[in-house]
Design a protein that fits this description.
Length: 111
């Protein structure tokens, strides 16, 4: 159960980060990266856009991987479920009517 919660929290963090990264970038080369266009900056606008694109792909791959991992850590109560399933089947068997063979009506035989 704790592994499932841990993976779920990681998925939530990845979703929030991916949303923020996508909102920061602009498809036309603008967005937040265009505001830092001074000539003596450490990273240029193009490098910032490349970083944001790589970050988007990285977060998307992380989100996909965590989603697939969550399938394997979903808590399953196999012991309890199996017992309840057996009890349900026995109850159905007890209350169901037995299947009877079709016996034709003697009047139908003469026709």
């Amino acid at each position: 159960m704790t592994a499932y919660i841990f993976v779920s929290v990681l998925i939530l963090i990845a979703c929030i980060l991916l949303t923020l990264v996508v909102l920061v970038q602009n498809s036309k080369g603008g967005g937040l990266a265009s505001n830092f266009s001074s000539s003596n900056q450490f990273m240029g606008v193009r490098k910032t856009a490349d970083f944001l694109e790589k970050m988007t792909w990285t977060l998307a791959i992380i989100l996909l991987s965590l989603s697939l991992l969550s399938i394997f850590v979903i808590p399953r109560n196999r012991g309890t479920q199996g017992k309840a399933d057996t009890e349900l089947r026995s109850t159905i068997d007890e209350k169901s009517a037995p299947v009877q063979d079709y016996q034709p009506n003697p009047a139908e035989k003469k026709k």
